[in-house]
Amino acid sequence: MSAHYLTISTDSVEPESGAPAPDRLISGDPKFRTWNVEERDGRLYAGIWESTPGKWRIVYDEWEFCHILSGVSIIAEEGGEARTVRGGDSFVLRPGFKGSWEVLETTRKEYVIKL
């Protein structure tokens, strides 16, 4: 095992379970699983996240790179455009992004978060 190379995989860590905060839930009963495989100084995180269908409000204070591995979601910016994302799509959500995330088909993404 290299100290400088890390494979992003669900095999490397037990998932954490979660859900949107009740005050952010818009519809459905989404459930999250997160495999956080890298954490540095409490300011950088990388791993895999998955959600079952549902819709909730999102507010980003952090910077996040996302690469959708599977599923279909709609990310709608408050007062702006709604974007459908699916397997193969990559994007960045910047600090200050507000809107909603709606999972139409269970969605799994790789992420890198910088606080």
TrEMBL record:
The lineage of its organism: Bacteria, Pseudomonadati, Pseudomonadota, Alphaproteobacteria, Hyphomicrobiales. Residues 1-26 are annotated as: Disordered. SUPFAM superfamilies: RmlC-like cupins (SSF51182). It comes from the Bacteria. This is Cupin domain-containing protein. Pfam families: Cupin_3. InterPro entries: RmlC-like_jellyroll (IPR014710), RmlC_Cupin_sf (IPR011051), UGlyAH_Cupin_dom (IPR008579). Transmembrane segments: none annotated. Signal peptide: none annotated. Residues 39-111 form the (S)-ureidoglycine aminohydrolase cupin domain.
